[in-house]
Amino acid sequence: MTPKTILTVSVTEAGRAVARRLPFEHVHGDAAATIAGRWADVDAFVLVLAVGAAVRMIAPLLTDKEQDPAVVCVDDAGRYAVAVLGGHGAGANDLAHQVAAVTGAEPVVTTASDRLGVPALDQLPGFVASGDVAPASRALLDGSPVAIDNHLGWPLPELLTGATPAGATPAGQRRPTIRITDASEPRQAGTAVLHPPTLVVGVGTSTGATPDDLAQLVTAAIAGAGLATASVGMVATIDRRRTHRAVVSLGWPIEAFAAPELAEVAVPHPSDAVRQAVGSPSVAEAAALLAAGPGSTLVVPKQASGAATVAIARRARPRGRLHVVGLGPGGAEHRTPAAAAAVRHAEVVVGYSAYVDQCADLIGPQQHVVRSPLGAELDRAQMALEAAADGKQVALVCSGDPGIYAMASPVLELAGRPDLAAVQVVVVPGVTASLAAAAVLGAPLGHDHAVISLSDLLTPWEVVGARVEAVAAADLVAVFYNPRSERRQWQLPRAMEILAKQRPRSTPVGLVTDAGRVGTRHQLTTIHELDPEEVTMTTCLVVGASTTVVRRGRMVTPRGYPL
Ligand code: SAH
Questions:
Q1: Which pLDDT score is estimated for 89?
Q2: Do 356 and 309 sit in the same domain of this protein?
Q3: pLDDT of 339-353, one tens digit each?
Q4: N or C terminus: fewer CB in 10 A for the chain?
Q5: In this structure, which residue's CA is closest to atom 20 in ligand 1?
Q6: Same domain, yes or no, for 139 and 92?
Q7: Which residues lie closer than 8 Å to 249 by C-beta, 6 or more apart?
Q8: Are residues 207 and 191 both part of a single domain?
Q9: Is the Cα dihedral 275, 280, 281, 287 positive or negative?
Q10: What is the CATH number of the domain that holds 54?
Q11: Given a cut of 60, is residue 168 above it in pLDDT?
């Protein structure tokens, strides 16, 4: 979990510079008063302060784990990001990683389970924890017995299926219990509650329904059935209401269906009036059941207020989700926090071996890792989708951006298959090679440019060559991916010949190999002097347009300002 409202506070000038690099609201000076004044209304503080000073300031403000915000401290040289308070529950551990990724600091996380590489109970992907979590967490860490009550038969991660279910408990002591449930339960000493995302709230609204109308109806339906809001995984409705503000403001992911799809679902309370109005005899019940998938049951039949209807379904098995993740060109400093979170929270991480290595720092002992060979892209896409169809949370990792000559397109093409229809695919963008290379070279992409892959494995050379011709004629800056490999040698010189017909031979060309990785190197040359031997499988090549110049060793394509 990453906190939402985050405030950075700095006191020294050096600290101010560190704070400014963070994408959060920032207050400089008077730390004690700022922290006290904002304690109740932010989810997290990033304090660019010594830990000792921070501890003295926050000590009088502390209430309990449920209410206190997360606190991360960063020294004013930006070397360390320390999760001080609210490591798991309030998200300080994740925030420390996020701050570290942006500033280049080392994340310092000291909570026991992170230290031992075991995921904490309140960090388990796919569950929201509540109740008395500490005793069961400690028992899991120690390998001592815990009782697991999984009356829903919900699939559990290995951490729990491998837990010692019974055994000797010191006389007089109750075994800590973990209850997996979507019911709302009063806190009970010794019982940790894990809420899985079993519930789908189906809604229908009139055009004029307000967010309050719908929220009240939904809240009452959940509470009336004794269910836990934390177990609601999504809201489902008819497609014309997908963007209705009352539906959107519920705050859950939305799944919407066309009227004919809804009309196919057998429901307990069909209505002729609704059929005439929208083309399906049911919206709330049908949408809830359809989104909850095969084997689901209606736990709250249709309830209506003047303006809206609600029904709640319980799914029989988890909805699998596949994140297709762009890791950026190399190091963690160019990896987005969203990419890191998607990998960290996955149950299964799939990728070409080198890309799995690229995010090894994010992978924990509970995660299943599938390394796949280069070239086996379709198998990789299919395997990742099938694992997600099986109800797993899967991260398929790619270098750069997953949508650029990578896995997002084959995944989404395959995801159209009927047996994979239940899988939700989320694409997490990354810094692509052209941007990483351009930054090293200067500003070669400052004006219009085109990106071409010189690989003719999947695209015939006639097509590739014709596109290079078109780029040459249009005087665009040209970026080449896959410029050369052991088996593909002649394509690069051929592309350069095509460009040389339209551009001076002195046109600048930049080569960047292994941008952002160990052993990165770059070179500035010209169309005339380019030595193909310098170009490898991991080189990104940027060929200037007629306007591109070199200024003090940097390649620049002017925007056109009158300088
Ligand atoms: N999805 C990737 C591209 C994969 S195609 C992305 O968005 O970056 C593979 C090609 O990308 C390589 O042949 C090379 O041209 C380029 N490339 C990938 N990573 C690179 C890096 N770190 N430095 C330079 N070029 C890179």
A1: 77
A2: no
A3: 998 998 898 999 999
A4: C
A5: 433
A6: no
A7: 211, 214, 215
A8: no
A9: negative
A10: 3.40.50.11220
A11: no
Indicate the pTM of the whole model: 0.72
Could you give the C-alpha distances from 305 to 204, 222, 238, 311, 515, in angstroms and in order? 10, 15, 18, 12, 58
Which residue owns the Cα nearest ligand 1 atom 15?
481
**SS3 call for 102:** helix
pLDDT at 164: 58
What is the overall mean pLDDT for the chain? Answer: 91
Atom index in ligand 1 nearest the CA of residue 398 equals: 1
Q: Is residue 538 part of a domain?
A: yes
Question: Which amino acid appears at position 436 of this protein?
Answer: A
Q: Does 501 lie in the same domain as 415?
A: no
* Same domain? 220 vs 294: yes
Ligand 1 atom closest to Cα of 480? Answer: 15
Give tens-digit pLDDT for 291-304: 998 899 999 999 99
Query: 538 CA to middle of ligand 1, Å?
Result: 6
One domain, residues 208 and 302: yes
Cα of 481 vs centre of ligand 1, distance in Å, is 6
Q: In the numeric block, which tokens belong to residue 400?
A: 């750069």
Number of domains in the chain: 5
* Band (204; pLDDT cuts 50, 70, 90): very high
Q: 64-116 pLDDT, tens per residue?
A: 888 899 999 999 989 999 999 988 778 898 889 888 877 778 889 887 665 55
pLDDT at 263: 97
What pLDDT is recorded for position 119? 61
Among residues 314, 332, 351, the one where a domain terminates is 314
Looking at the CA of residue 401, tell me the nearest atom of ligand 1: 7
Give the mean model confidence (pLDDT) for residues 216-224. Answer: 96
Assigned domain for 274 exists: yes
**Does residue 72 form part of some domain?**
yes
Quote the CA–CA distance of 182 and 161 in Å, as a whole number.
19
Domain that includes residue 414, residue range: 321-431
Tell me how far the alpha carbon of residue 475 lies from the centroid of ligand 1, in angstroms: 23
Ligand 1 centre from 155 Cα, in Å? 38
- The domain boundary residue, chosen from 314, 345, 370: 314
Which residues does a 6 A CB cutoff place in the pocket of ligand 1? 329-330, 398-401, 404-406, 432-433, 436-437, 481-483, 512-517, 537-540
Rg over alpha carbons for the chain, rounded to the nearest Å, is 27
Q: Are residues 453 and 549 in the same domain?
A: yes
- What number of helices (H) and strands (E) belong to the chain? 19, 28
pLDDT attached to residue 167:
46
Distance between Cα 371 and ligand 1 center (Å): 19
Q: Is residue 541 part of a domain?
A: yes
Q: How many CB atoms lie within 10 A of CB 26?
A: 17
